[in-house]
Structure formats: C-alpha cells, structure tokens
Design a protein that fits this description.
With 487 residues, the protein is α/β, with parallel strands linked by helices. The protein is built from 15 helices and 22 strands. The chain has 2 domains: 266 residues, Aldehyde Dehydrogenase, Chain A, domain 1; 191 residues, Aldehyde Dehydrogenase, Chain A, domain 2 (3-Layer(aba) Sandwich). A 7-stranded mixed beta sheet has the order 14-15-16-13-12-18-19, sandwiched between helices. Strands 9-8-7-10-11-21 form a 6-stranded mixed beta sheet, with helices on both faces. Strands 1-5-4 form a 3-stranded mixed beta sheet, covered by helices on one side. Strand 8, helix 6 and strand 9 form a beta-alpha-beta unit. The longest helix is centred in the N-terminal third of the chain and has 21 residues. The radius of gyration is 23 Å and the shape is globular. The structure holds NADPH dihydro-nicotinamide-adenine-dinucleotide phosphate (NDP). NADPH dihydro-nicotinamide-adenine-dinucleotide phosphate (NDP) binds next to helix 7 and helix 8.
C-alpha cells in the first residue's frame, strides 16, 4: 500500500476537531523531504478543552468505575484495531519517522502486544492484606491516579504511545496524549482506534502541538494529576520543576549513553555484529543505543576490524526498501547536531574509522553514515553526551575494574551490554553497573523479547519503570484501609 498525504485533526472529548485557532503544521518524510501529512496544531485553548474532557470523563464517566476485566476487553479490542490497520500504521511510521519498514512492522506488532498484555493485566493488579491482629482488618487498594498527561517522542512514536496509554487505560485513568510534532499521525490513529474499540469519549484525548508552547501549561494544569514523559533529560527536568508546586506525580524515560563492554573471552564475531545493531539500529536514535563501546585492550585491533567490516555491510538508504538496515535521521537539525559531535570528536583527537558524513550516494534526505570513532576517550564530549545518531565511540580498557569504572562514569544509566563467555565475570560486571537494564551477550533489552520486564533507568536516565506489571504502579495511588472491628 502507498499512502498519499493526509489531513489529521485533534481528538478531544471523543470528537475530531480542528484547532481552536485553526492552526496546522506539516509532517515531512525525512527520507524524501516531501509532505506526508498536515496536522491540526493544538494550542492552549485546545489543551484546556482536552483537560476538561479528561477530567469530566474521570470524575463522572464510567471508565474508572468499570470492572477491570471489562476495561481489559476493550484494551483487547484496541489491540485488534491496531492489527486491523497494521500496514497503514507501519507505512506511516516509516514515512513520518524515517525508520526502516521492517522495524515499523515490528513496532506496530509490539504495540498491539502491549495492549494485549495490559488487557490481561487489568484485573490482576492486587492490593495487599496486612496481618495486624484479631480485631483489625488492614488492606490496600490501588486506585486510578486520575488525569494523566503523556508526552511522547518521535523515535518510537506508536510504541511509546502504547507503552504509556495501555497501562494507564487498564488502571482506569483519563489521558491527554501529546505526541512529538515530527510524528503525531499514528498516535492520532491510535486515539481513533481506541474510540472505536469502546473507550468512552474524553478518556483518551490526542493533542499534537508544540511541546515548547504547551509544556508549561500541561505541567501546571490543575486538572492534571500526573505527567508521564519520554524525551530529552533537560525537558524532563523542566517538567519536574514546573509541576513541583502541585507535587504532581511524574514518571520519566530520558536519555542514555549506554556502555557495551566486550571482554577478550567473548564471541567476537557475535559481539561485533551485535555492536553494529546496538549502536546504529533506528539510526542510533534510541535511548537504549549502545554508543560507548569498551573493548579489552588485548583484542582491540582484532575486534575493531570485525566492527568495521560489519558496519560496512550495514546498508543505509530508502527506509521503505526491504534490504535497507538504516534510514535517515529525523530532521536536518538533528543531522547537523550529529555532524557537529563527530567534528568535535575529531578536534579532540578521535579518528573516524568509517562514516562521519552523508553517504555519497544519497544527496537528498537526512542520511548520515554509520560512524565509528576510534582513539576515543571516555571524557570526550562525544563519549559523554547523548548524540542520538549513528555514532559509536570505541574505547579500550585494561581489566574488569577499569571497564566498570569507565562505564559508570557518566550521568546516564539506562542500559548496558556485557560480552563474555565467563558467566561469573558477566554477572559480577552486570551487578556493578549503575543502570536500569543490563544485557549479557546481547545488544537488545528484555523489551525486545516481551513486555514482561521493567524498563527504565538510573541516574539522569529517568524515574519509574514502564512495561511489566510495574507500569501499573505509575498510574495508581495506593490507599490503605484500616478497620477496627472489635466488639
Ligand atoms: P524533546 O524532549 O524536546 O521532545 C520529546 C517530547 O517532548 C515531544 O513530544 C516534544 O514536543 C515534547 N516537548 C518539547 N519541549 C517540551 C516542553 N518544554 N515541555 C513539555 N514537552 C515538551 O526531545 P527532542 O525531540 O527535541 O529531541 C532532542 C533530544 O532528546 C534528542 O536528540 C535525544 O537526545 C533526546 N531524546 C530522547 C528520547 C528518548 O527516547 N529517551 C526520545 C527523543 C529525544 P515537540 O515534538 O512538539 O517539540
């Protein structure tokens, strides 16, 4: 199927609407730079309308009062609705975000699976009974937190929206979903699918619009109980500050600069291939990207050769083509940022082993070649900051303690990978790393395989855990009830 460009409206109170001020913005394909969609541009008046719709739905509507299994059935219908529009969603994800079609298809499938998971979880999130003695009964309830503003990024648009909306809906919350301006379309379609599946009007409002303009109003809005955000660490910190006066609940999935530690006893072929996917998958635009590659000094040369060979096989090009491994970056400004980091690293003494610029055969689109920076140190800017592009720095280490010290010497702490055939060493290192998720002999996190493991980071990588049953904690308040039933 090939889509022509389309027009998309806001979803507020169960209705598709133009923006109150009539504004729109365009979404362009990062590969061709051509128009994909024109989208209503929400302003503060639309945010007010969405907040009122969400508040009313929560305070007076049936959704939070519905039996959890009945909410679960509707979540299952959303999963079916996503599968029913599978090809359209996958193609839009590629055309708006530039990710390769195979990844878009995986992500649409994973989005449906998130709804299936929380469809089954809705009636399995229990409180506790706390033993206190013969004359008293003490138990806890998990009650929906209320109105939640969910702000999502452009790198995994539908998947991030699903990670956030599915558990919140399962708990009975009402939502204002603000998708990233680069990629609002699949979230708008998700809103329509949810409505058709039986989610009552006002429970899921979808509001594309400029985060910089809407952010403070969202964070300070008296009708919003909680903010769930994925994006840049500075934006997350600003949301925390803006919402602090109200002590709003906040959960954050932020940046990463994840280490990938390769010991000399690892399967070097496997580790080199995985390092390429770990660093350059989704064009490196992933908070989980393994962008600091620590290699034990004795195998540095041997490993680096394999890494370069595997990188040269990684095909950059049209994200709609079957044989492409990597598409363009999201925007020209993102391209410029990546280029500046590479040039800065060279100025600091790093060598570009491959990549470093636009691929010679791709004159149009925001393409950047997969880039390996050798002769790097852990204190170079390119090794310290999140680049969000296909750039990996290779840094040698001397022993286990040296690798751990360098891996932990960073303000982020999202993911890490450890490669070794020595199980004891791999476990020691995994336990010593200051991060939320560690993969041993794999570049992917558990979320690649299922939705059953908690996802989140230490340090400046975030607050709270998404996925798994833990995500239900993000969307509920705990209440303790104590009953004295003595005679
Ligand atoms: P942002 O944090 O700016 O954007 C993420 C989301 O937040 C978008 O929906 C955006 O809206 C919204 N937003 C922007 N400003 C505010 C604000 N002041 N208050 C509330 N919401 C806001 O990230 P960018 O898209 O600008 O990307 C910049 C960098 O952030 C990347 O290069 C990368 O390093 C990091 N990033 C990390 C991600 C992750 O998965 N952890 C995902 C995306 C980015 P809008 O699109 O309208 O600006």
């Amino acid at each position: 199927m090939t889509l022509t460009s389309g027009n998309y409206q806001l979803l507020i109170g169960g209705e598709l609407r133009d923006a109150a001020q009539g504004g729109t913005f365009v979404v362009n394909d990062p590969a061709t730079e051509s128009l994909v969609a024109e989208v209503a541009r929400a302003g503060v008046a639309d945010l007010e309308a969405a907040a009122l719709a969400a508040r009313t739905a929560f305070d007076q509507g049936p959704w939070p009062r519905l039996a959890p299994f009945a909410r679960g059935r509707i979540l299952q219908a959303i999963a079916d609705g996503i599968r029913g529009r599978f090809d359209e969603l996958a193609e839009l994800e590629t055309r708006c975000g530039g990710k390769i079609l195979a990844n878009s298809r995986n992500e649409v499938d994973a989005s449906a699976r998130v709804f299936e998971y929380y469809a089954g979880a809705a009636d399995k999130f229990f409180g506790n009974t706390i033993p206190m003695g013969a004359d008293v009964l003490d138990f806890t309830l998990r009650e929906p937190i209320g109105v939640v503003a969910q702000i999502t990024p452009w790198n995994f648009p539908l998947l991030a929206a699903s990670w956030k909306t599915a558990p919140a809906l399962a708990c009975g919350c009402s939502l204002i979903l603000k998708p990233a301006s680069h990629t609002p379309v699949t979230s708008l379609i998700l809103g329509q699918i949810a409505l058709a599946a039986g989610v009552p009007a006002g429970v899921l409002n979808v509001l594309p619009g400029p985060g910089g303009e809407l952010g403070n109003t969202i964070a300070r809005h008296p009708m919003v109980n909680k903010i769930a955000f994925t994006g840049e660490t500075r934006t997350g910190a600003e949301l925390v500050k803006q919402s602090a006066d109200d002590i709003k609940r906040v959960s954050l999935e932020l940046g990463g600069k994840s280490p990938n530690i390769v010991f000399s006893d690892a399967d070097l072929d496997k580790a080199a291939t995985a390092a390429v996917f770990g660093a350059f998958g989704n064009a490196g635009q992933s908070c989980s990207a393994r962008t600091r590659l620590f290699v034990e000094r004795g195998v540095l040369e041997e490993f680096t050769e394999r890494l370069v060979t595997a990188t040269e096989l990684f095909r950059v090009g049209d994200p709609m083509a079957d044989d492409t491994n990597m598409g363009p970056l999201i925007s020209s400004s993102s391209w410029r940022t990546v280029k500046d980091y590479v040039d800065g690293a060279v100025a600091e003494g790093a060598n570009v082993l491959c990549g470093g610029d636009r691929p010679v055969n791709l004159a149009q689109g925001h393409y950047f070649s997969p880039t390996i920076l050798a002769n790097a140190t852990n204190d170079m800017q390119a090794a310290r900051e999140e680049i969000f592009g296909p750039v990996v720095v290779v840094i040698p280490f001397d022993d286990e303690a040296h690798a751990i010290a360098m891996a932990n010497d960073n303000e982020y702490g999202l993911n890490a990978s450890v490669w070794s055939r020595d199980g004891g060493k791999a476990i020691r290192v995994a336990r010593a790393l200051q991060c939320g998720m560690v993969s041993v002999n794999s570049h992917g996190s558990a979320s690649r395989y299922g939705l059953f493991a908690p996802f989140g980071g230490h340090k400046k990588s975030g607050l709270g855990r998404e996925l798994s049953m833990r995500a239900l904690e993000l969307y509920t308040e705990e209440k303790n009830i104590f009953i004295d039933h003595s005679d």
